[in-house]
Amino acid sequence: MFDDETRSFQVVLNDEEQYSLWPEDRDLPAGWHAEGTSGTKADCLAHIDAVWTDMRPKSLRAAPLTGGAGR
Questions:
Q1: pTM, rounded to two decimals
Q2: By the 8 A CB rule, do 9 and 21 touch?
């Protein structure tokens, strides 16, 4: 399914702001929604590389910092 370079994909996002790609002609899995970008597999992966700069899940990014400098 994901090896077909001619297939059209869409970029999907979950509630933790983690990105993936999914075939446009398939129903999205639970917990994922369309991000708005679609195209070839290469196009979608390039978009994900450009926008997903912090791989940490949203809940981890939002967590208060503990420890570190000043101690």
A1: 0.78
A2: yes
